[in-house]
Amino acid sequence: MPLLEVRNISKSFGGLRAIKDVSFKVEKGELIGIIGPNGAGKSTLFNLISGVYHPDTGSIFFKGEDITKMEPYELVRKGLVRSWQIVRPFRNLTVEENIQVAFYGGGFIEGGSEYKQRLEEILQMTGLLTYRKQLSKNLPQGYLKRLEVARAVATGAELLMLDEPFAGLRADEIKGLMHLIATLHNRGLTLLIIEHVVRSLLELTRRVLVLHEGRLIKEGTPEEVRRDKMVIEAYFGEESEVA
Ligand SMILES: Nc1ncnc2c1ncn2[C@@H]1O[C@H](COP(=O)(O)OP(=O)(O)OP(=O)(O)O)[C@@H](O)[C@H]1O
Ligand SMILES: [Mg+2]
C-alpha cells in the first residue's frame, strides 16, 4: 500500500482551474521533487493534500485511509505535515518553545523523559542546539528554515511536504538544509519537496513530478525530466532553470 495516493484530483478557484486531474502515488521512504513554473499549481497541490483546501473532484488516501475531506489539524495527528513557502514560527517564543508547541500539535503530551530526549534529539539533528534559548524572530533565515523542519518533525511527521525550502537562502545555507533533508530521509521520513532551485533538488531526489498549468506533465528520474522536451518548453522564458 502506498503511503500517499492522489487520485484524479481537480481544484478550481472561480473560473481558474488550478489543478487538473492529477494522480500519483508515494511509497514510504521516498523523497520526491515537485517542479514547475510559477503558477503551475504546486502550492495548491500541497494545500489539497494537507487539507487546507479540499478538491472539487477526486480523492486522496494516506496509509490507506480516505483523507480527502479532512482538516489540517487531523492530518498532522495522522503524520501528514506541510511547511509553508513563507516560514511561520511563533516569533516571540524561543526555538525550544516553538518545538514544544509542535509536540502538542502532534498530540504528544509534555513531560516525561521520552519527551525531553526527543526534544534534545530534534535540536541536535537540526543544528539548533546553540540557538535553543533564542527568540525565533532573532534567528537568521537559514536557521528559521531549520526550525520549520524541526517543528514538523516534532509533530511526529511521517510524510513531510516542504514548499520551496531553499527560497531566499544563501548557497551555504542551502547546503546545510540539503544535508538536514538528506539526514531525515535516511532516517526513513518520506518527503515531498517543491523547489525552484531545481539543481539542488535534483541532487537530493531520484523521482521528480513536473506540474504545468495544473497538470502533471511528466514523472521520472532527474535525468529523464531534464531531457524532456515538454518540460524544457514549460520552463522556456522562466527564470527557473531545469539544467
Ligand atoms: N486561494 C486562491 N484563490 C484564488 N486563486 C488561487 C488561490 N490559490 C492559488 N490560486 C491560483 O492558482 C494558480 C496556481 O497557484 P499556486 O500557488 O498553486 O502555484 P505555484 O505553482 O505554487 O506557483 P509559485 O511557483 O509561484 O509558488 C495560480 O494562478 C494562483 O493565482
Ligand atoms: Mg507556490
Outline the fold blueprint.
Elements: E1 4-13, E2 16-26, E3 31-35, H1 42-49, E4 57-62, E5 65-66, H2 72-78, E6 80-82, H3 95-105, H4 113-125, H5 141-154, E7 159-163, H6 171-186, E8 190-194, H7 198-204, E9 207-212, E10 215-220, H8 222-227, H9 229-235
Parallel strand pairs: 3-8, 3-9, 6-7, 7-8
Antiparallel strand pairs: 1-2, 1-4, 4-5, 9-10
Helix pairs in contact: 3-5, 5-6
What does this structure look like?
It is a single chain. This protein has 243 residues and is of the alpha/beta class. It folds into two domains: 165 residues, 3-Layer(aba) Sandwich (Rossmann fold); 68 residues, no CATH class. The protein is 37% helix and 24% strand. The chain is built from nine helices and ten strands. A six-stranded mixed β-sheet has the order 6-7-8-3-9-10, with helices on both faces. A four-stranded antiparallel β-sheet has the order 2-1-4-5, covered by helices on one side. α5 packs parallel to α6. The protein is globular. It starts with a strand and ends in an 8-residue tail after the last helix. The model has no long low-confidence stretch (mean pLDDT 90). The structure holds adenosine-5'-triphosphate and magnesium ion (MG).
